[in-house]
Amino acid sequence: MKRTIIVIVLFSLLIFQGSALDFREYLRKAYEKGDGGRDLELADRYAAWSYRSDFSAILPQIDFEFYLPSYSNAIERYEGLGVEYENEYLFYGGRAILNQVLPTNTEIQTVFHYSDYTTYQSGDAEIDGGFATGRLTLTVRQYLWGSNAGFHRLKRWLNSRRESEIKRDQNVLNFLRSAYENYLDYLSLLRNYELNKGQTERYRDIFKATENSYKMGLTDLITYNRIKKRHVFLEMALKEAEMQLKEADKKMELYLNEPFEDPEKKIINISYDLFRECSPQAKTDSQKILLDNALRNYKLKRRAYEPALFGELEATYSAEGASSPGPLERDRYTASLVLSIPFANLSKVAGLKMEKINYLQEKNRYEDEKEIVGISFEKLMTQLDIYKEKIELFQVILPTLAENYRSSLSRFHIGAITLQELMDIEDEYISSELEYLNLLKYYNLTALEISSYVGNSNEIMEELL
Predict the structure, then answer these.
(1) What are the C-alpha distances in Å from 303 to residues 146, 283, 300?
(2) What is the value of pTM for the model shown?
């Protein structure tokens, strides 16, 4: 019977350990169902549409207008002839307008106008039974002098494509940052509660023994009061640790959007090898994009205020018929050489000057950031090295500190060490346990910060998931 009970207990422990949530599974749940994954998806969708918005600037722009319906009535008089006509139209229709700006400094506009008349009376002509007209106007402008809007829009789109990649990379890092912080903060609170609980339970026994000894006159008042004070403060610390752990449980449930299982008390550190021989390329590219976009915005803004010389070709094609317009035929075309000199009022001049100053500020900021990026990157890499070495050191000394603590408890019970010596050993062990968890947090968050400079979030995700 006793043997059966032992087997059942061992089997239960195995089931309990097997059900513990490991860090990889936690990340997968956070990514697929949690708030972190939700925020990542929305951020990626926003970045994708932002990219498409810039892409649309180099595509043809099409607009539609519909007349539902339109009525027109006008009296036309011919002076000296004593003749007047009533022109009356009731029609449905619309028009489609297409604009295209090319990187060759060429602008194309196409307008197609369609009307379907149910009432058509013009002068002495009246058409019954329906009448339809169609008109296509094609205008092409080739700029010989003036800012090339199409080229600047193309460059801004190319910048947006690279910027979109960087933003997606940052979104992944933001997800990982929140996931690591939540998990390690929880482990710290859990370990703090466990250490407090074990310490408090031991001091309950020590306090009871000391209290009995004091009543029998075997312990002095000073020692009794010191142990009592330690016992009371530990009881209060345990209640606070328990409250913090319950709050952390609720926070993790909200983050994962499901009940939070007992976690494994270890994590997967981001590999240090991912950052060997790397450079802050993503951060440098991001600064270049900001500078180039400021230049493109200034050039596009300036275009509306500067003189321009362009050749223009305009052709019109028309058709009309009883039930449908029929085939379009060209009825006129015009070729012109145009010099455009915009009127520069104060509002326009102020807007242009502000855009130029913004570009110059961005240029100065870029020059400053080039140096700062390199310095910050080297500092982060040095900090990562320090955290890595400290973690390796703690992995060696923590088992020794734990063994010293267990040994000191036995020695205290037989009177081989004083209470103060026990407290010093105890505090050193507990603070080291919690410091180790903080080191894991700082190491991984620093690695993620370095990744934002490097742009290798995909490699980190592949390693972790």
Answers:
(1) 7, 31, 5
(2) 0.76
